[in-house]
Structures are given as structure tokens and as C-alpha cells.
Design brief:
Helix content is about 35%, strand content about 20%. The strands form nine sheets. Strands 1, 2, 3, 4, 6, 7, 8, 9 and 12 form a nine-stranded mixed beta sheet that branches. The longest helix has 22 residues, at about 825-850. The radius of gyration is 33 Å and the shape is globular. The two termini are about 65 Å apart.
Amino acid sequence: MKKLLSLPPNLVNCFHDVTGHDRSEWFCTNDPIGHKLGSGGGSTWLLEACYAESSDGKSFDEWLASDRRLLLHAGGQSRRLPAYAPSGKVLTPVPVFRWERGQRLSQNLLSLQIPLYDKIMSCAPDNMHTMIVSGDVYIRATQPLQPIPEADVVCYGLWLGPEIAKDHGVFVSRRETPSVLECMMQKPSVKTLGELLKDHFYLTDIGVWLLSDRAVKLLMQRSKRNGERINYDLYSEFGCSLGTDPSVKDDELNSLSVAVLPLPGGEFYHFGTSHEILSSTLAIQNLVNDQREIMHHSLKPHPAMFVQNACVGTAITERNQNLWIENSYVPSSWTLAHENIITGVPENNWTISLQPGQCVDIVPAGEDEYVVRPYGYDDKFRGDLHDLSVTFLGRPFAEWAAERNIDIDTIDGNADLQSARIFPACADVNDAGLVLRWMLSEPELKEGAEIWSESRRLSADDISAEADLMRLQQQRDLLRAANWQALARNYEHSVFYQVDLDDAARDFAKFNIPQPDAISDNAPLLTRIHDSMFRSELARIKGNEYQKNEDKAFALLRDGLTQQVLTEKQSPRMSVYGDQIVWGRSPVRIDIAGGWTDTPPYCLMEGGSVVNLAIELNGQPPLQTYVRPCKEPHIVLRSIDLGAIEEVTTYEQLADYHHVGSPFSIPKAALALAGFVPAYCAEKFGSLESQLKAFGCGIELTLLSAIPAGSGLGTSSMLASTVLGALNDFCGLAWDKNEIGHRTLVLEQLLTTGGGWQDQFGGILQGVKLLQTGRGFDQCPTVRWLPSDLFTQPEYTPCHLLYYTGITRTAKNILAEIVRRMFLNQSDELTRLREMKQHSLDMYETIQRADFNKMGMLVRKTWLQNQAIDSGTNPESVRRITELIDDLCLGYKLAGAGGGGYLYMVAKDPDAAARIKQILNSNRPNANARFVDMSLSTKGLQVSRS
């Protein structure tokens, strides 16, 4: 989705340099200077300007339909938020949320807004290519979005009380048809809203509108008169012409179909005034008060104080509530009060004593000037300076001017405070401090009066036009670099290890910030894991050796997952007759939603959620293990499918299980966990031979895996579970299925292959199910069983197809890079994993409702999610296969991590399934490619004796 931004003119020229955003994805312009176009006319101007730059020879209609676009209006004067008027409110820095993981220290209002808009647009019907939103709000949807209906206009709103709705636009609909707009009202009275409720609903407009191409073209027509642009408002004019009974009659606009939707779990935070940046930020920070959910516990003396990108030497106490310091140096010579906003202040040794409600904004202009702008917390920057109701620094401007012997009639632009030239530009930082003191509270300070009188003076509008935004950003970057060091030192009470550490490492490298001091070995384990991977990433970016710290992060993770199990020593005892064979056999699994969310460390931080099914191949459990006693005190390992055999006679041989790909790594590690190496055995023996004699026999363990390596069906995990299950019975260890699944996770950590828990539990437990865990190192899934009708009923069974592609890929290599990003709280990755978790719940509900078509389409979405998290999931060789059958499938995905192995397909119907078989059998990609019959396993892991 391309982003089109209407910005303050001065920001347009440097937006991409300030933000680092890609010019091909982000288009910026400003409304024509001197022309007020309104939100409707401004949208037209924005679209036409972008078309002029990027039409590539297309007609406007072709261009409009060729891509999806977000139009974001952020070009206002920002009279009531002077601190961020020059850079636009949309770039207001927003502190990291104390309860959130993966945010960036450099985040701003824009970066917080975009993800929801992206999500909404991705759900929009095909006829909608344009979304129009406001730039000074942060909107959250805490619940999944509902389907977006086909319409010409779709508007989102919130259920808000009349005391709030009276100050906004509202969407009115009849109770019988709540999603169909009857009319739109602008700022209706509380009485009007009360009368509406008799037979209507109303939603408060939050400024998120989706428009079809037809609606866009009509909006553009109404924004001009006789070919000339006019001031046309999207809400009061275009909006009030919409609905089944609109207040403005316009046949073409009245004919547009309009749907109104409540934003699910919607929250709305305005950042339009000085008061709101504090109240909204505080409200967001306090959304979560459960101390278990808050990832750091700051030592702030009052919650309503926010300091970011700043160097503060003065004392801050509980009396300084409603304090905002950003991009500023505030030395110990300053004294603060409350309701103070301080922005842009350069390094200084000024002696400043702020009174309640006094704010300071210093704006760089030109090569070396600093414009000094003090103002009041509640100043509106509107009205004639002679008017006693016009306040400046919280008092009548006329009173302030008289106290300083200023003749208002001599001030340029005195008809409006916004255009009044009263703010001095100083080339000397010390002069700036003196004139600031004079303007704030020292009218008798002669040096300050002289500097004000002799300086070039700018208005608030001039400041926005002349501000050197690159100088402003450079100061912010330098202060953030210093803050990184402080945050790292104070990690126990800061956001450091909860932020996006990938972004942090890039900042450390970019600004050459020294690596933080080593943290305590007593720090929480997850903190130490994050720390090690952060250090590894920083070294990698700098081109230094990084493997040692990466290995340390994985080793710490391994310790956390294995510690509890490995402290529980085992006492294996021969529990079968001398002629008995223990036979274990298991199905494999296909994950259809939520895969990757079960993988540590993500599941340890946020819990996992997966829907998968246990399947048999060609009517048989494909993984089998046989354990039998033998007279000789040794262990014999055999693999039928690999044709391999190994005799183990010493502990050293048995403990040598770290070689990935070795035919007997899994059974050796399983025997170790069963107590056949000293580290895991409750008793002490001098040798393996003496232990086996005490055990009562030697052991012959035979494996059969009737599945090719790299299948994606969770083969290695399920083979480990099968071996552990058989040894559990053979040795009388009394593990239940949950314990076998948990020990499989430990086994994979011992092998350093990593991995999550869904592979083994997907096969240990039969049928179709939703598996979920909470956060923490004790990853024991709860199971919600699902009906099997969509997989077993005659009309659906033929539609489930499994095709071995003959292409293999080792999951460990895929896993390592994805897990690395999890360690680093990488923002985009966490977002995708959270979407996958929610997707698993959507799949769960869909299967509960027995909606076959939607289930198949959700499988397709799973495949897209897997590709988003790992681009190597869908190589060209696989793409060539799926292109042949795409239109015959509701959905498909490669099993497991992807890249090769088995392709699971959900055909649209049995006829489509037959056609898929015909096509792929006629176009085999290699000699090993083939269809394999799959059926739902009704038993899961089975262990029996002869």
C-alpha cells in the first residue's frame, strides 16, 4: 500500500531524509500555499499530485485501480501543539509503551498509526483502493477486524457516549440495519443524540474512510467548480451527502452505497493539543496495570511525566506532573513546575525557572539560528493581540506585552497570535537563554529586552516555514544515542530489553555507541538471552565476530528449557519379559494455522497457539520404534529405512548425540533422558555395562521412518516422541503423553536443533485440535479438540490432498534465523507472529462452524503468513508446482517450515481434487514426486507390547 501524505510545506522537502522512508512507497506534498482546500479538496489535490509524479503513462482511472493508497492528512498549522508544529504532529515522538514488546525508541505517531491502516486495507474488498485518515490520532483495534462489506464507502466508528460524540461527526443507522448508513451528522447536540436512540444507533466518526474508485472520482468532481479547486470538506459536505436519508441532497452522492462498521475493541487517542500529548500518552501507558504484564518497573516519581531523547540534569519530583521533555538539554540550573512541555532546547547553561503551565520550544532555523518560542500549556494561538481573551504564556497577551513595554501596534501580524512576529531568532545560545528568561518571567532583564528588540522575529507560521528540520533531527539523534547508554545501564528499570533490539543494534552501530557493560548473571534468564543476542547482532552489523554471543543466547535458552527436566533424575528398570518387544508407532502432523508461534523464545514471551492435525500415511502410522531386551550388556541401534546399525558399549558413545543428521542422534539422546548416562541417572554406575547389568538386560532399539527427510511433517520431533514413548514403557518411567511431549522439546534442545512443541504434540495427540500455551518456560499445551467432520465426511475427504514434492530442506537452517529475530524482539516479526496466533483462533472457530470453504481459504492465508516470516518458504521450484493447481484449490501450504517436503492442498471439491491429481501426475517436477494417501489419525501415539 502506497502512503500519500499531506504535510506542512517545510517538511515535504526533507520528510524522506528525516524519517528514512522509501520515496517509492511514501509520497509527500502540501496543499497549495494560500489556498484552503478542506479535507475533501485536499484529498483530491493529494491524489492528483501523486498521479502527476507516478502515472507511468496510465490514464487516471487505470492508475487509481492499479494500487491501494493511504491518504493521510497532517498538514495543519498545529496551533494548539506548537512543540510539533514545524515537523507536523504526525512525527510527534511517542514513548515506548511500558507493557509492549518490540517497539522502537525512535517511534512516532506515524509509525504507530500505519500498521492498523495496513491491516484494514488488506481486508478491503477488491473495489476499494483508497483510504483517507487523519494524522493527529492514534487508533487501536484490540480485537480482530470483521469482514468489510462491498460498498462504495466504508466508514469506521466507535461506540462513544454523547458527551464525546457531540464534538464529532456521527454515523446514524436504523436499529434494523445497523451497518447501513442513514445519514451523517456533524456535532449533534446531546439532546439530538438522546432522541436518536429511540430507534437508531450512532457511531462516532474516527476519521477512517475507505472509498471505491467510483466514490473517489465523485469526491474529486465535487472538489472543483468550473475547473477551479474549492474548499470542500470530506465530512460535513461529502459525508452529509451519504446514506439512505442524507441531509444534503445530491443525486449522485446519495446513490453511493455506504457501510458503517464499529472498530472492534476500538480505542481512540488524540494528539492534537499540548494537553492531549500528555493525557493520551498517559492513557496508553495505563491501558495495562497488571504488574505481570508490565515488562519494566520504572522509578518515575509520577506517571504523568515523559522524558525521551533528552539529557536532564535537574531534579524531577512528584510535583512535576504533566511534564514532557523531548529533544532537549535541561541542566541542573533549571527548575521545573508542572504542566511544562520542553522541546528542542540545545545544550546550555541557562538558569531557567519555569512556572506552572509555562512551556519552551527552541527551533533551529538557517545555519546557526535558534528561534525562542515560549508559550502557555493551554494557549490556543488564535485571535487579535489586543483582545484580552487571547492568552500567551497563560495570561492575556496585552498584559504580557504591557509588562515589557511592547506596543502591540508595532508587532507585525498582530491581528492573529499565530501570525504575530514575536519570537526572536538568536545566533548565540547564551542570547537565546537571556531572551527566554525575559519572555518567561523576568521582564526587568535588560539584556533580554535588548536581544528581543534587536533580533529578527518570527511568527508561529514563520517558524514552521523556516525551521531547519534536519538540524532538529540531528539533535534528537544525538540525544537518543546518549539515552541508549543510560537505558542499557539502567536496564532493570528501563525499556531496554523489551524494545526492538535489532533496531537498537543498528542505532548503536550507526552512532558508534559503546557496547553496554556486561549484565549480572543474576538477571532474569530471558533478559540474559536477549542481551547475548543483542551483543551478537551489534558485532555482526559492525563486521566483528558474533558467533560466540549467538551461541551463548541459544545455550541459555537451552538451559532454561531443559533445567527442570534434567534435574529430575531417572531410575530405569526393565519392565518387560525377556521375550517381549515394545512397539511404538506414531502419526505425523500437518499444521494448518499458527505454526512458528510454538517456537521458543516467542512462546516463552507471549505463549503459542497452533491448529494442527495428526495424520497417517497410506493407512499406517509412518513412524515406528521397536525396543527389545538382549542378553549382552550393550545397546544396539538400528535404522531400517537408513540401513544403518551401531553398537554402543560406553557412556561416551551414548552421550555423543550432538551431530545433526547422524542416524542415531535421536535414540541416543532419548536413552540419555531415560537415565542411561550418568548426568540424568538417579544412581551411580561405573560404566554403561554395569548399569545395563543392573537394569536386567541389554537393549536393541530399531527405528523405522517411512517418510523422506525434510518432509515438513514434524518427522524428527515425532520420531523422538515415539522413541521416548517406547522407552518409557520398556523402562517403567511412568511418563504420560504430556511428559513425553515436553521431554521431546528437551531432547531437541539437547540436539541443538531447537524447535517448538507443536510437532510432537500434533502427533502424540490424535485428531484435529487447537494447542495453546501461556508464557514462561513451562510449555505444556492445553488442548481444545475440534470436530473432524471437515476431514472425515465423504464429501470432504477426497478434497484433502498430500503431495510429496521431492524437494527437501533442513529445518534447522530456517529455524536459526527466525529464532534470532525472536531473540531480538524484531518488531515486524513479533507483529507477524501475533497475527499468526490470532489466525489460529480464526481457524479454530471456522472448523467449529464446519465451514469448509473458509477453512480452505484460511489455509491459503496460513501459507501467505509463512512466506511473510520466511521468504525462503516458497522457492521457485515449489512455485512452479502450485501455479499449476492454484485455481483448483481453496488453499494450500507446504507442511512445517516449508521450502520443500510435502504440499498439503484443500481442493475446492472432489472434481477439482481429481483434476489436481491428473495435472500433477502429468507434470512431475522430479522422479520422487508423488501423491500420498492421508487420513486423520484417531489414536495418536500408540505403544503396545508383544
